[in-house]
Amino acid sequence: MKYCSHCDELIRKGEAYDEQSIDVATGPGITVYRHLEPCRPAVPRQTAPVGLGR
Ligand SMILES: [Zn+2]
User: Fold this and answer.
1) 54: which of 24, 32, 45, 48 lies 20 to 30 Å off by Cα?
2) Is the pTM value of this prediction over 0.90?
3) What is the Å distance from ligand 1's center to 54 Cα?
4) From the CA of 16, how far away is ligand 1's center (Å)?
């Protein structure tokens, strides 16, 4: 099972993803996966501000 490190969603079979190996000095390296298609906007936009009712 591969999970996207960007959106924490499961990467399904057939979905394009990027694979990146990260070397860890204290043990075996880890591999992270990310959707190739932007699954989350780089700059989050607030369309409905919450907590500004003062
Ligand atoms: Zn993703």
Assistant:
1) 45
2) no
3) 36
4) 10
